[in-house]
Design goal:
Radius of gyration: 17 Å
Strand order of the largest sheet: 2-1-3-4
Strand content: 5-15%
Number of helices: 8
Largest sheet: 4 strands, parallel
Protein backbone atom coordinates (compact mmCIF):
# COMPACT_ATOMS: atom_id res chain seq x y z
CA UNK A 1 0.00 0.00 0.00
CA UNK A 2 2.91 2.38 -0.40
CA UNK A 3 1.75 3.83 -3.71
CA UNK A 4 0.09 6.74 -1.87
CA UNK A 5 3.16 7.57 0.24
CA UNK A 6 4.60 11.02 -0.36
CA UNK A 7 1.70 12.14 -2.56
CA UNK A 8 -1.55 13.98 -2.09
CA UNK A 9 -3.43 10.97 -3.45
CA UNK A 10 -5.93 9.19 -1.22
CA UNK A 11 -5.10 5.73 0.08
CA UNK A 12 -6.15 2.74 -2.00
CA UNK A 13 -9.88 1.94 -2.08
CA UNK A 14 -11.01 -0.26 0.79
CA UNK A 15 -8.30 1.02 3.16
CA UNK A 16 -8.66 1.96 6.80
CA UNK A 17 -7.84 5.35 8.31
CA UNK A 18 -7.18 5.12 12.05
CA UNK A 19 -7.49 8.25 14.19
CA UNK A 20 -5.30 7.72 17.25
CA UNK A 21 -4.25 9.82 20.21
CA UNK A 22 -5.71 11.48 23.29
CA UNK A 23 -8.98 13.19 24.24
CA UNK A 24 -8.62 15.72 21.42
CA UNK A 25 -9.29 12.79 19.09
CA UNK A 26 -11.37 10.50 21.30
CA UNK A 27 -13.99 13.20 21.90
CA UNK A 28 -16.49 10.78 23.33
CA UNK A 29 -18.14 10.02 26.60
CA UNK A 30 -19.80 6.76 27.45
CA UNK A 31 -23.58 7.04 27.16
CA UNK A 32 -25.73 6.85 30.26
CA UNK A 33 -29.42 7.47 30.79
CA UNK A 34 -29.09 11.02 32.10
CA UNK A 35 -26.77 12.28 29.32
CA UNK A 36 -27.66 10.12 26.33
CA UNK A 37 -30.34 12.42 24.86
CA UNK A 38 -28.14 15.51 25.37
CA UNK A 39 -25.19 13.81 23.67
CA UNK A 40 -27.31 12.76 20.69
CA UNK A 41 -28.95 16.17 20.25
CA UNK A 42 -25.75 18.20 20.59
CA UNK A 43 -23.37 15.85 18.79
CA UNK A 44 -21.21 15.64 21.92
CA UNK A 45 -20.38 12.00 21.22
CA UNK A 46 -19.42 12.81 17.64
CA UNK A 47 -15.79 13.82 17.15
CA UNK A 48 -13.72 14.68 14.11
CA UNK A 49 -12.99 11.02 13.18
CA UNK A 50 -16.71 10.34 12.87
CA UNK A 51 -17.21 13.54 10.87
CA UNK A 52 -14.34 12.65 8.51
CA UNK A 53 -15.81 9.17 8.02
CA UNK A 54 -19.23 10.61 7.22
CA UNK A 55 -17.76 13.15 4.79
CA UNK A 56 -15.81 10.46 2.93
CA UNK A 57 -18.87 8.20 2.82
CA UNK A 58 -21.06 11.02 1.40
CA UNK A 59 -18.58 12.67 -0.98
CA UNK A 60 -16.20 9.87 -2.02
CA UNK A 61 -18.07 6.57 -1.62
CA UNK A 62 -15.95 5.17 -4.45
CA UNK A 63 -12.97 5.03 -2.06
CA UNK A 64 -14.75 2.63 0.33
CA UNK A 65 -12.58 3.94 3.18
CA UNK A 66 -13.24 3.00 6.78
CA UNK A 67 -12.43 5.60 9.45
CA UNK A 68 -11.90 4.20 12.95
CA UNK A 69 -11.39 6.09 16.20
CA UNK A 70 -8.88 4.31 18.44
CA UNK A 71 -8.08 7.26 20.69
CA UNK A 72 -8.46 7.22 24.46
CA UNK A 73 -8.66 10.38 26.56
CA UNK A 74 -5.65 10.95 28.79
CA UNK A 75 -3.26 9.02 26.55
CA UNK A 76 0.44 9.70 26.24
CA UNK A 77 2.46 8.40 23.31
CA UNK A 78 3.51 5.37 25.42
CA UNK A 79 -0.20 4.46 25.75
CA UNK A 80 -0.64 4.72 21.98
CA UNK A 81 2.27 2.29 21.53
CA UNK A 82 0.68 -0.05 24.09
CA UNK A 83 -2.44 -0.20 21.88
CA UNK A 84 -0.34 -1.53 18.97
CA UNK A 85 -2.10 -4.95 18.80
CA UNK A 86 -5.26 -3.19 17.55
CA UNK A 87 -3.22 -1.51 14.81
CA UNK A 88 -1.87 -4.89 13.72
CA UNK A 89 -5.45 -6.07 13.28
CA UNK A 90 -6.59 -3.01 11.31
CA UNK A 91 -3.46 -2.50 9.14
CA UNK A 92 -4.39 1.13 8.44
CA UNK A 93 -3.11 2.91 5.35
CA UNK A 94 -3.14 6.17 7.31
CA UNK A 95 -2.97 6.93 11.03
CA UNK A 96 -4.03 10.44 12.00
CA UNK A 97 -2.17 11.10 15.25
CA UNK A 98 -2.97 13.80 17.81
CA UNK A 99 -0.74 13.51 20.85
CA UNK A 100 1.54 15.56 23.08
CA UNK A 101 -0.52 17.47 25.63
CA UNK A 102 -0.61 14.63 28.15
CA UNK A 103 3.06 13.82 27.51
CA UNK A 104 3.80 17.40 28.52
CA UNK A 105 1.50 17.19 31.57
CA UNK A 106 3.18 13.95 32.71
CA UNK A 107 6.63 15.42 32.10
CA UNK A 108 7.70 12.87 29.52
CA UNK A 109 11.01 14.09 28.13
CA UNK A 110 11.01 15.43 24.59
CA UNK A 111 13.67 12.89 23.47
CA UNK A 112 11.57 10.02 24.87
CA UNK A 113 8.45 11.27 23.13
CA UNK A 114 10.34 11.79 19.87
CA UNK A 115 11.63 8.21 20.06
CA UNK A 116 8.16 6.81 20.78
CA UNK A 117 6.60 8.64 17.83
CA UNK A 118 9.42 7.48 15.55
CA UNK A 119 8.97 3.89 16.77
CA UNK A 120 5.24 4.05 15.98
CA UNK A 121 5.99 5.33 12.46
CA UNK A 122 8.57 2.55 11.90
CA UNK A 123 6.18 -0.14 13.11
CA UNK A 124 3.40 1.11 10.85
CA UNK A 125 5.69 1.23 7.83
CA UNK A 126 6.95 -2.32 8.48
CA UNK A 127 3.45 -3.64 9.15
CA UNK A 128 1.64 -2.40 6.08
CA UNK A 129 3.47 0.51 4.47
CA UNK A 130 1.08 2.90 6.19
CA UNK A 131 1.90 6.50 6.98
CA UNK A 132 1.26 8.81 9.90
CA UNK A 133 -0.32 12.24 9.56
CA UNK A 134 0.24 14.42 12.62
CA UNK A 135 -2.58 16.79 13.54
CA UNK A 136 -1.79 19.52 16.06
CA UNK A 137 -2.24 23.10 17.16
CA UNK A 138 -5.55 22.78 18.96
CA UNK A 139 -6.41 25.67 21.26
CA UNK A 140 -5.56 24.54 24.78
CA UNK A 141 -7.78 25.43 27.70
CA UNK A 142 -8.05 24.53 31.37
CA UNK A 143 -11.56 24.31 32.76
CA UNK A 144 -12.93 26.41 29.92
CA UNK A 145 -10.42 29.25 30.46
CA UNK A 146 -7.60 29.99 28.07
CA UNK A 147 -4.43 28.12 28.90
CA UNK A 148 -1.67 30.25 30.51
CA UNK A 149 0.90 31.38 27.95
CA UNK A 150 3.82 29.41 29.44
CA UNK A 151 1.84 26.13 29.44
CA UNK A 152 0.55 26.78 25.92
CA UNK A 153 4.06 27.36 24.61
CA UNK A 154 5.42 24.27 26.37
CA UNK A 155 2.59 22.07 25.06
CA UNK A 156 3.14 23.48 21.56
CA UNK A 157 6.79 22.49 21.86
CA UNK A 158 5.70 18.89 22.45
CA UNK A 159 3.41 19.09 19.43
CA UNK A 160 6.37 20.31 17.39
CA UNK A 161 8.50 17.40 18.64
CA UNK A 162 5.84 14.89 17.56
CA UNK A 163 5.39 16.58 14.18
CA UNK A 164 9.15 16.59 13.55
CA UNK A 165 9.40 12.90 14.47
CA UNK A 166 6.62 12.04 12.00
CA UNK A 167 8.28 14.08 9.24
CA UNK A 168 11.69 12.51 9.95
CA UNK A 169 10.14 9.04 9.68
CA UNK A 170 8.67 9.90 6.28
CA UNK A 171 5.09 10.16 7.55
Amino acid sequence: MTEHRGTAMPPPPGSTILCEGDSLTAFRVGPCLDTWAWQRMTGAAYGYPERVGDWIFCHRPDLRLTVRNGAVGGSCMRDVLDRWPAVETLKPAIVVLTIGTNDYNHRVSEPDMRGQVAEYCRRLDRLCGGRVVYLSRFRLSIGGAACPEDRRLAANAYAAVAGEAVRAAGG
